[in-house]
Amino acid sequence: MAGQEAVIITRNLTKLYGSITAVQDLNLEIREGEIFGLLGPNGAGKTTTILMLLGLTEPTSGQALVKGLDATRQPLEVKRVVGYLPDNVGFYDDLTARENLLYTARLNRIPPVEAEKRVILSLEHVGLSSHAGRKVKEFSRGMRQRLGIADVMVKDPAIIILDEPTLGIDPEGVRELLALIVRLAREGGKTVLLSSHLLHQVQQICDRVGIFVGGRLLAVGPVALLGQQVMAGKPMEIELQVEPDNEQLISVLRSLPGVTAAERRGAFIRVCCAAGCDIRPQLTSDLASKGYNLLYLRARGYDLDDIYRQYFQGEGYHETLAG
Amino acid sequence: MKRWQASIKDWLAWFRQQQWSSGGLKTVFQKELADNLSSTRFTILVSLVAVAGIGAFYVAAQNIRQVAGEADPQFVFLRLFTTSGGSLPPFITFISFLGPLLGLALGFDAINGEHNKRTLSRLLAQPIYRDDVINGKFLAGLAVLAMVIVALGFLVAGLGLLLLGVPPTGEEIGRLFVYLLITIIYVAFWLSVSLLFSLLFRQTATSALAGIAVWLFFALFAGMLAGLIADGLFPVSEEAPPARILHNAALKQNLGRLSTTTLYDEATITLLNPDVRTLGPVLVEQLEGAVAGSLPLGQSLLLIWPHLVGLIAATMLIFALAYYFFMRQEIRAG
Ligand SMILES: Nc1ncnc2c1ncn2[C@@H]1O[C@H](COP(=O)(O)OP(=O)(O)OP(=O)(O)O)[C@@H](O)[C@H]1O
Ligand SMILES: [Mg+2]
Fold it and tell me: SS3 of A55, please?
């Protein structure tokens, strides 16, 4: 899977817009062949980071290296190896999908015959083959987004940077797109950096994610590991569904050893454990002895959703908003 | 001398390497050329200019034929361009008035259009130099304008031949050629103005309006304003001393020349009307002993040389400004 060599490195990358800090002291390493997800809410600085990686925006300080090339000093060489899908990608409305992609191919100095082949192939990959000859002005939002992906594939770059790639694509399309990205990384050996604020989608395919809030990278790592990091030292929370769901249930749960609190949350019951205590191993037998059956159990804090919320609701978000 | 030549050669080689090595300039140029030629607005404007120009030309030809016998037979062919026929102004006035519109039409949405279509960030993420984009757009616009102007020139020249039956002399052809060249430079000036506005304003409608405002100002109001300022500084009444009248006239003219339209008009009338011997105010004593007659092409060129240099400098200055802004512009899709 992922190689060990870092192909994208940022060193104390900082970008100020006047008094606004868009990105602050970003230190990031993305390894060859991995899929890296840059996660964060609106205005977190994801797009700004990506623009600096491509040399499209000059950093205020710090350095961005792509394959050892300084993005500010050698933007041309960087752009040769990086394919970029901007957020809200646009095309020349009066040209057909095919013509738009051929223009990209020409700008990349791909020989005409090869270009034709690649255009057909990449349109096929994104499911737009039958629309190749249509003018882009007739395209829907999602079709444009797909065309944007095809546009990146025509270039056949070693590094693919996608800014909000799933924006405006229907669920079926998202599944196909994510599968395509995985295929590109696993079979094509491409390095993929994608930004998103849609956790569930990214969670499925990213080898590692970086949580980005208010211009700062708060955590980096595989999703599972991040969960442990975030939840480390915090009391464990468990979500339950128990049958029969009667009046005494809550008090019964509260009386169990190691439980500090229990309350209803919608269809579930949330149980807080004492710090450093995991009640799950004995829970089934404890409940069974009191005449209850366990229907559903989940330890919160191990998926991205919780990690994310933790950062936005907890210290992370408010601190940066205040500072 | 040798070293100087060598360094120029080096520089040219470097320049070529810079410009063509990424291949971006050529590709952008080709695409913009195709875009321009197929755009509706351009077709409309070219038709407008062509119809107005040819109409004026035709009426002028009718007029000249009527007075052919009595008039000075010299430069009949050129007179087709400068004679007004009844209610229609002459050909050169039409071109001077409408030409800027062609330049404005080709450039007013050059950069902000790409911005609004969100194609700019995608374009600049390709391995091309950033200036390839603005250079390619400018050169493509220039190429199309040159094509149109030369084609229109040949068209009316052929028409003139048909209508008058008098072939133009070598000198007339030379003058016509220089006239077309200056027209191309003049329209290129407006192209660079519109390019600049397409960078300064995010809305294409705003940049189009700004371009039209400058055009109207130069074409209509600059002269009036020059007159106002001159009259304010050197009021000329009935009993004003001659020196003041002279100052007034000179100031008025020089202020007017700050407008490229005035520069262009003076240059073209000098070119197409060889009887124009001077462009400044003339005193009666200066005319004493002057031999009536027309200037040869070389002398006319000498007379308008400053105008030519001024036009080129203005075009380059505006383009350099646009270039500067473009290189510094923040590229964001949003
Ligand atoms: N041209 C600009 N001038 C001033 N501030 C800017 C500019 N562009 C972005 N910013 C600021 O930089 C910060 C980061 O913006 P950025 O676009 O990188 O966020 P993002 O993470 O991509 O958000 P989103 O999820 O909405 O795309 C924001 O606070 C924004 O206000
Ligand atoms: Mg963004």
Answer: coil
